[in-house]
TrEMBL record, chain A:
Keywords of the record: Metal-binding, Zinc, Zinc-finger
Start-end of Low complexity biased regions: 145-161
Listed name of the protein: SWIM zinc finger
Molecular function as annotated in GO: zinc ion binding
Residue span(s) of domain SWIM-type: 54-87
Species lineage: Bacteria, Bacillati, Actinomycetota, Actinomycetes, Kitasatosporales
Coiled coil: none
Annotated stretches, region: Disordered: 145-173
Entry superkingdom: Bacteria
Source species: Streptacidiphilus jiangxiensis
InterPro entries from the UniProt entry: Znf_SWIM
Signal peptide: none
One Pfam family, short name: SWIM
UniProtKB/TrEMBL annotation, chain B:
Protein's name in the database: Uncharacterized protein
Source organism superkingdom: Bacteria
Organism: Streptacidiphilus jiangxiensis
Pfam families membership: DUF5691 (PF18944)
Length: 474, 497
């Protein structure tokens, strides 16, 4: 059996806090029967309020979930509860008390062994379907690799893809026209505001910029839209708001101007501007274009942010051989967990392809060659706070709109002060932010530790720390 | 970067004013350049002073499964399992994982019943954290206590001890005094005497409480003096402490008052004549001038006197040499309805204060035949039970539950240590089965079910499953959850081994 997942990791798969709570209630042996686990999957039947138990299977490689319950949450509480039970070791029947408890009262008569290594039919049929699909996909990929595109010997009809490409190019041209018009309108609005003076901004409230943002959405420039929307909130952001507001006006103005003059800019900067404006490149596209970087990737950490329409998960990796850092993004609708989940602090052998933009960071995850394993080192190498700010500055040279840059800082101590939290080392201090800075302080006990996070002009946002006890997601 | 400072304030000023009022060519372009330059030029700020690191915690770390369990219990805020988890982890000398300390301290902040165990399990690192977070200040008010692993620092001696006593926080001083009393009662009293007149009234009260540790005849002069204290609460506490010293002057004075109030009649029955007024010496010995309850003053004074009289007095009265026979003999002579309740209540309080198991046993033996409703609502049986050895306590409660059912059993069950022995858990399960059968509502037994969750042994789970299988749906749900909790608890305790 592969490394059993930690409770934290299982909980991180949940689409929301309510699901975590519901799953915790199901993480007890009583409602479960026909449970089992193999290297491939975990399965069980959960007694609910209905007459038939829900049949739940989790394939560990995705992870992928299958449950006969009608819930629209994904993964559902049954899948999460089953994983929690498995992660706590209570599923595998360790110890007499647990194995007795693993049989639901109703199932006691048919008992038999509580834990089966062979999946029952309902689980096996789904797993077999998955295996078959994976096999087909691998075969197709191998075939594609064997017959490269544009090879004259290819017998496939060439007209189909060519027509698709022509249509895609036309769509893209239409979109670029719209975006350009949107950028022009945005420049006009910004200029209007500056003529009238920012002193009026607090009186205008959110509505003005929300309206502009809506127009940017219509112009298919979501990147401009979200920056425009953010401008509406800044006048109410406390002391020094004029400085922040002018900074963001200026940076948005710079982006819209860059968009207008894109043709005259160096290609990498133009690519960065396109991605900032909201032209995303499909992960599949990135993987197809390559090049692929195979490495032992350490999972530095992950963080979810949610608004009312979308949950965004950021996962940061560091290659042991290449020394490169990478950022994977995964999205989920509310109630649906982002698909991609990797356990913090573990390493996996996998292929990545980087998106075209400078500085190179965002990547797409290709083939995984191993399940996550424990790395051979206790903690990743880190730099000083001064050097962390230095790498942010270097990254700004490529992408002036960057708010922060991922960095591992070594030998730094979290300190609560009157003016808020600070991260302190021999080179000085930066403002520190974390979901729970007290957890970080408790882990450090007032002594220096290694901490991963995003370092930028607002300070350091901690994501993971390493102590003698290992990695800790904050 | 300081170079952009002056132009930046100019730029902000221009932007606030508006370029219609003041021309500022390419304002946004220049502002963008200044913004990127500022961000790229950021340097670390001067470091603030670092706090002292937390003291090392030498206790063993939790087994992995137990640490995961604690995380789950804290996330669920489990009311039934968290207290026992903490109590067990404390007894076994484990340290909580550092990253769970904030959640643990938050939980104990909301639930004071968790505090003393949580603070010990959180250990020195928890105490260190609490000093930095105002939300967790309550930790510093709980005196550090000895743990099984002995991780607390030894009692300070010499000048260090003086410093703690003279300058320490209140909680530190109480801890220091309590430890000193345990090691050397006379030294503890001497220390308290050095500052006694200057202490505040509420502090004097708690310091007096600390004297219960190692209380002995040598403390009597000090306590006698405290009977004239300015504060009423201090006077009352001093009187109560003196009444538990059988050889004290106060005990003798109370015995003398008892002698005047209770005599042996010619027919062998007790003749009771409570005092007609509360004189100055009674007042000084802690008896209030008027009854604080609705009861008559004379009945109240009688109760106070009996409660503070050494129980050995009654052996003299009935001339019985065998101490185990005394309570029986005395009770059989107090059958007349007049003043009988006041006498029994006084004896019950005396038995509790003087930890007299023979008296407690005799008073309890009468109970089932007595009017139970009144006796139980007085709360006395559970206090009397607490004087008996654990096995006897459980056996008495088991008999009570068998005869009376669960309606009045809650207070009694709470005094029985977990896990309950077979006779008590059997009686409680029988009573639950009957309650389920007669169709009473499960939530009317929620108190009993709660204490049963904490106290039934895991071996009871199978029988509860069987009860659930034949019960109505409301009871089936409650009983299934109970069985599940017992199994989870067994797993939880195994993890803490």
């Amino acid at each position: 059996m592969n490394d059993r997942w930690t409770t934290d990791h299982v909980l991180s798969l949940a689409p929301d806090a309510a699901s975590q709570k519901a799953a915790a209630k199901l993480s007890r042996p009583t409602p479960w029967a026909q449970t089992g686990a193999s290297a491939e999957a975990v399965w069980g039947a959960c007694k609910g309020s209905g007459s038939r138990p829900y049949q739940t299977v989790v394939a560990l490689d995705g992870p992928a979930y299958h449950c006969s319950c009608p819930s629209r949450k994904f993964p559902c509480k049954h899948a999460l509860g089953l994983l929690l039970l498995w992660s706590s070791g209570a599923l595998a029947g360790e110890g007499a008390a647990q194995s007795a408890g693993a049989v639901a009262p109703g199932a006691a008569a048919v008992a038999g062994p509580a834990v089966a290594a062979v999946a029952p039919d309902w689980a096996e049929s789904w797993l077999a379907g998955r295996r078959e699909r994976a096999g087909r996909a691998a075969a197709a990929a191998a075939a594609a690799a064997a017959a490269p595109d544009g090879d004259g010997g290819s017998s496939a009809p060439a007209a189909g893809p060519a027509r698709d490409e022509a249509a895609a190019a036309a769509r893209r041209a239409r979109r670029e026209t719209r975006v350009a018009a949107g950028a022009e309108e945005l420049l006009t609005r910004l200029a209007d505001q500056i003529r009238g003076g920012l002193a009026e901004a607090p009186a205008r409230g959110y509505a003005f910029w929300d309206g502009v943002a809506a127009r940017m959405v219509d112009a298919q420039a979501p990147g401009l839209a979200s920056r425009a929307r953010d401008l509406g909130a800044l006048p109410a952001s406390g002391a020094q708001w004029p400085t922040r507001l002018l900074e963001e006006y200026a940076m948005l103005h710079l982006l819209a101007t860059g968009c207008r003059r894109r043709e005259t800019l160096p290609a990498p900067l133009a690519a960065t501007i396109l991605s900032r404006v909201g032209f995303t490149v499909d992960n599949a596209e990135v993987l197809r274009a390559g090049p692929l970087v195979r490495d032992q990737w350490l999972v530095l950490g992950s963080r979810d942010t949610a608004d009312d329409r979308l949950t965004t998960r950021r996962l940061w990796l560091r290659g042991a051989g290449s020394g490169r850092d990478a950022l994977l993004l995964s999205f989920g609708r509310p109630g649906i967990a982002p698909e991609l989940s990797l356990p913090t602090g573990l390493e996996l052998d996998a292929e990545l392809a980087f998106h075209p933009a400078v500085p190179v960071l965002r990547a797409a995850l290709g083939t995984r060659h191993s399940a996550p394993t424990r790395p051979s080192f206790a903690r990743p190498r880190g730099v000083s706070i001064d050097d962390a700010l230095g790498s942010y500055a270097a990254a700004l040279a490529g992408d002036p709109w960057l708010d922060s840059w991922p960095t591992v800082i070594a030998d730094a101590t979290p300190v609560p002060t009157e003016g808020g939290w600070q991260l302190v080392d021999a080179t000085g201090a930066v403002p520190l932010f974390a979901p729970s800075p007290w957890r970080l302080l408790a882990a450090s006990a007032g002594r220096p530790l290694t901490v991963f996070g995003e370092c930028g002009h607002r300070g350091f946002h901690a994501v993971t720390c390493w102590t003698d006890a290992g990695p800790l997601a904050l | 970067m300081t170079t952009s400072q002056a132009p930046w304030t100019d730029l902000v000023e221009d932007a606030l004013l508006g370029t219609n009022r003041r021309a500022s060519p390419d304002l946004l372009g220049r502002a963008a350049a200044a913004t990127v330059a500022r961000r790229a030029g950021l340097r670390p700020a001067p470091a603030p002073p670092l706090p002292e690191p937390a003291p090392q915690d030498c206790r063993p770390a939790l087994p992995e499964a137990a640490a995961r369990r604690l995380a789950t219990l804290l996330a669920e805020n489990s009311s039934e399992l968290l207290p026992q988890w903490l109590g067990t982890a404390r007894a076994r000398g484990f340290a909580a994982p550092p990253e769970l300390l904030p959640a643990l301290l938050d939980a104990a902040r909301q639930r004071s019943d968790l505090r003393s165990d949580a603070v010990v399990v959180a250990g020195p690192r928890g105490r260190w954290l609490s000093a930095l977070n105002p939300d967790w200040r309550y930790v510093l008010r709980i005196p550090a206590q000895e743990t099984a692993a002995g991780s607390e620092p030894p009692t300070a001696t010499g000048t260090a001890a003086d410093a703690v006593w003279q300058e320490g926080l209140f909680a530190e001083r109480v801890t220091h005094l309590t430890r000193l009393r345990r090691a050397d009662p006379a030294a503890g009293l001497a220390l308290l005497r050095t500052t006694w007149p200057t202490e505040r009234a509420e502090d004097r009260l708690l310091f007096l409480d600390a004297l219960q540790e190692g209380l002995g005849p040598d403390d009597e002069p000090f306590l006698e003096a405290a009977l004239s204290d300015r504060a009423k609460n201090v006077r009352a506490t001093a009187a109560e402490l003196l009444s538990t010293l059988p050889g004290s002057g106060l005990a003798a004075r109370m015995a003398e008052r008892a002698r005047r109030a209770v005599a042996l009649g010619t027919d062998g029955a007790l003749l009771v004549d409570p005092p007609a007024l509360c004189d100055a010496s009674m007042l000084r010995d802690g008896i209030a001038a008027t009854s604080p309850t609705g009861r008559g003053d004379r009945a109240f004074w009688l109760g106070e006197i009996i409660a503070a009289t050494p129980l050995s007095f009654w052996a003299e009265l009935v001339e019985e040499a065998d101490a185990t026979q005394v309570p029986q003999r005395v009770l059989s002579r107090a059958a007349a309805p007049t003043w009988s309740d006041e006498l029994r209540e006084g004896w019950a309080r005396a038995a509790v204060r003087q930890h007299d198991a023979a008296w407690a046993r005799a008073l309890l033996a009468e109970r089932p035949e007595q009017v139970l409703g009144r006796a139980v609502s007085g709360g006395a049986p559970s206090r009397l039970l607490s004087v008996l050895p654990a096995a006897e306590r459980a056996a008495w409660t088991a008999r009570f539950v068998s005869r009376q059912g669960l309606a009045d059993a809650f207070q009694l069950l709470v005094t029985c240590a977990a896990p309950w022995p077979a006779d008590l858990s059997g009686a409680v399960l029988d009573a639950l089965a009957q309650a389920a059968e007669t169709g009473s509502y499960p939530w009317s037994h929620s108190g009993v079910l709660g204490v049963a969750e904490r106290s039934l042994p895991c071996s009871a789970a199978a029988r509860i499953d069987a009860l659930a299988a034949v019960a109505s749906s409301a009871w089936a749900e409650v009983l299934t959850r109970l069985a599940e909790t017992l199994r989870t608890r067994a797993a939880m305790l195994a993890e803490l081994a």
